[in-house]
Amino acid sequence: MVKTESTQKLRKDQVAPDFTLKGTDEIEYNLESFSSSKLLLVVFICNHCPYVKARIHDLISLQDIFGKPDLQIVGINSNDPSYQDEGFENMKRFSREYGLNFPYLIDDTQLTARRYGAVCTPDPFLFDLERKLVFHGRINDAMEPDMTPNVRTMEENVRKILRGQNIENDFEPSIGCSIKWKD
């Protein structure tokens, strides 16, 4: 595990880079697949990272709180599929084990992660209805796996956007394991 802080490549108001990626449900998804949701939260996650495992229930809860008309979450795994506990079959197992209520997609070429500028897991990007970036950063203030969150950063930001309010800080770096890049 290499602890890494997210960096900013995409900036506020930049449009989400499109992708065509296969989900653990064997369906191919792209940005248009989620056009019916007001907000789209693209989160780069993986199967083995303790930071992801510590925050995955927060993401599942976030999807439950808002529902797909308001918010659609999409998990993308960009780790080298040959890395221990990664790869498509392990993603299917992870999805079942944690009861994911959102699509979990494989980015085996790692091009999507590079286009977004994702460097760690979890690395969340929140987009508005026009799929312009409104927030890039942490899910909450629990920056280590064993911490309990006190401030639900992403939930508060989703509520603000849905109410037509501005987010004061559009980038608050997340911390997690580094994406495992192919050689």
Please tell me what the overall shape is.
Answer: globular
Topology as a string of helices (H) and strands (E):
EEEEHEHEHEEEHEE
Query: What is the CATH class designation?
Result: Alpha Beta
Main β-sheet, spatial strand arrangement: 3-2-6-5-4-8-9-10
Extended strand count = 11
Can you tell me the CATH architecture?
3-Layer(aba) Sandwich
Q: How many separate helices?
A: 4
CA(first)-CA(last) distance: 17 Å
- Oligomeric state of the chains present here: single chain
- What structural class results from the helix and strand content? alpha/beta
Q: What percent of residues adopt helix (DSSP H or I)?
A: 25-40%
Radius of gyration: 15 Å
Sheet having the most strands: 8 strands, mixed
Portion in beta strands: 15-25%
Mean pLDDT: 96
For the record, the count of structural domains works out to 1
Low-confidence stretches: none
What is the CATH topology assignment? Glutaredoxin
Q: Name the CATH superfamily classification.
A: Glutaredoxin
3D structure, described in words:
The structure is a single chain. The chain has 183 residues and is an alpha/beta fold. The chain has a single domain, classed as Glutaredoxin (3-Layer(aba) Sandwich), CATH 3.40.30. Helix content is 26%, strand content 23%. The chain contains 4 helices and 11 strands; from the N terminus they run ββββαβαβαβββαββ. The strands form 2 sheets. It has an 8-stranded mixed β-sheet. The protein has a 3-stranded antiparallel β-sheet with strand order 1-11-7, covered by helices on one side. 40% of the residues are buried. The mean pLDDT is 96.
